[in-house]
Amino acid sequence: MTPKEKMAIPPQEMPSQDPAERARNMREVALGYTAEMAKTEASRCLGCKNAPCMEGCPVKIHIPEFLAKAAEGDFDGAIAVIRESSLLPAVCGRVCPQEKQCQANCTLGKALKDVNKAVAIGRVERFCADLQRESGKQKPAEVKPATGMKVAVIGSGPAGITVAADVRREGHDVTVFEAFHKPGGVLVYGIPEFRLPKAIVQNEIDGLKAMGVKIETNYVVGRTRRIVDLVEKDGFDAVFIGTGAGLPKFMGIPGENMVGVYSANEYLTRANLMKAYDVEHAHTPAIVSRKVAVLGGGNVAMDAARMALRLGAEEVHLIYRRSEKELPARAEEVHHAKEEGVVFHMLENAVEVLGDENDRVRAIRCIRFELGEPDASGRRSPVEIPGSEFEFDVDTVIVAIGNGSNPLISRTTDGLAVNKRGNIIVDENNKTSVEGIYAGGDIVLGAATVILAMGEGRRAAAAINGYLAEKAQRQGK
Question: Which of 390, 402, 323 has its CA nearest to residue 350?
Fold first, then answer.
């Protein structure tokens, strides 16, 4: 086909559950492409020789090559290309912000002057990964002969999973230490089932185990064991820190200690990891709400708002102090939230949580804003409108304004440099200030995306493999 013919092919819409039905169940919202849809969407790729889409991909998947194979119906070949660079295609195809990364650079999208008309790279990637998994063709990566070197990976989120696989492939002995009772990090405690089914995450964890990676759960490094103990007492030759950014931030307003105020982290962890929605089988106390206010405008805020509906709330209100144009959440998540009935309140914010005689949430006091001049991020700054305060009746408040870094590891590891936000400082190879210790993902970047964390993990793993090769040479191994 000529470029003109390809440009005439309409984008393939993703089938999804009916909004009214899905808002009350935990099944995946997006249903995925059929084979024919995946072939058609992939055939829209113009096959640019300079591959600008790859520049937007943190792990540098060879996108034109995998799309060309998918367009021919060679889905096995397509997923083989993807897996050369990405260990989590079924995950990334679902949760990565492609519209801000690979698809933002797509020549077709630019020609049509609409990123939503760019090639739906993530949706094709998801189809190929799902097909491989469901057909039973997915096999663990090959592992080189044992080197005698041991690597500790702290945290089993996207960065940790990536490091574990890439380092294990080189023949090193790898143990992953996870603080929770299930591995997967933010993939299991943060992202809801309706966006990322947990069976998909478990499949990737099973793949690691099949490679020979050992996983220790309920193991809090810094408390169960310090990093220095892992090195000096347990004989680990290198350590990767991928503990994420799981320390919730709060507004700092009066009344945040009321019963019925949650951080989005706690709320989602109860529902995702501990399955609070499964009232008959889960031991987690159910979160019963009637009218919920979610404070924030990012993807986590959308997840919390949509989860509240699924936990039985009659009304869910999302409150954000800027306009909808400045919402940092993915457009797709905003669209889905609106379809499901979440009510958006723009240019408003809570200034106080109000409680009843038992210190239970009964309302929030809000103030209205207007937009002023752009701030350092380029977004227009919200400016309070004097005298615009009002009360809003709710019985649950979920604070979703971001997360910080847990200081446990930095406080128990001598010489480990961190910045003023508590993020670990690394060089261009993700090496920390301590010899043999590397870090990546949200603990370095702050709250970021799954694919960015994976990109960090790939870079760190390459550096660790190089470091261990030099160490083995010095030791004569």
Answer: 390
- Give the pLDDT score at 337: 97
* C-beta separation of 388 from 368 below 8 A: yes
Compute how many other C-beta atoms are within 10 angstroms of the C-beta atom of residue 4. Answer: 7
Q: Among 76-80, 206-210, 390-394, 445-449, whose mean pLDDT is lowest?
A: 445-449
Report H helices in 1-151.
3-7, 19-22, 35-42, 52-55, 63-71, 75-83, 89-95, 107-111, 121-134
Helices 75-83 and 63-71 cross at an angle (nearest 10°) of 170
Query: Does residue 365 carry a pLDDT above 80?
Result: yes
Q: Express each pLDDT in 252-288 by its tens digit.
A: 999 999 999 999 999 999 999 888 888 788 888 777 8
Contact between 110 and 70 under an 8 Å Cβ cutoff? The reply is no
| Residue appearing with tokens 């990364």 | 101
Which of these, 135, 293, 130, 100, lies nearest to 204 by C-alpha position? 130
- The pLDDT value given to residue 374: 84
Yes or no: say if 261 and 399 are a contact pair by the CB < 8 Å rule. Answer: yes
Q: pTM here?
A: 0.93
Distance (Å, whole) CA 249 – CA 265: 9
Cα–Cα distances (Å) from 426 to 4, 151, 438, 445, 461, in that order, read 46, 18, 7, 10, 14
Which domains does the chain show, CATH number per domain?
A: 3-134 (1.10.1060.10), 150-246+404-475 (3.50.50.60), 250-401 (3.50.50.60)
Separation between Cα atoms, residue 45 and residue 64, nearest integer Å:
7
Please tell me the predicted confidence (pLDDT) of residue 477.
64
How far is Cα 199 from Cα 29, in angstroms, rounded to an integer? 15
The number of helices, as runs of H, and strands, as runs of E, in the chain is 19, 16
* Orientation of helix 264-272 relative to helix 299-310, angle to 10°: 50
Using the structure block, give the residue that is written with the tokens 């005689």. 357
Pairing of strands 214-216, 238-241: unpaired
The percent of residues in the chain predicted with pLDDT above 70, rounded, is 100
Determine the average pLDDT of the residues in 87-101: 93
Question: Facing residues of 352 across strands?
Answer: 365
What are the φ and ψ backbone dihedral angles of 302, each rounded to 5 degrees? Answer: -65, -45
- Provide the CA 169 distance to its chain's centre, in angstroms: 24
How many whole angstroms separate alpha carbon 217 and alpha carbon 175?
A: 11
Contact present, 369 and 382 (Cβ < 8 Å): yes
Average pLDDT of the residues of the chain: 94
At 171 the pLDDT is: 97
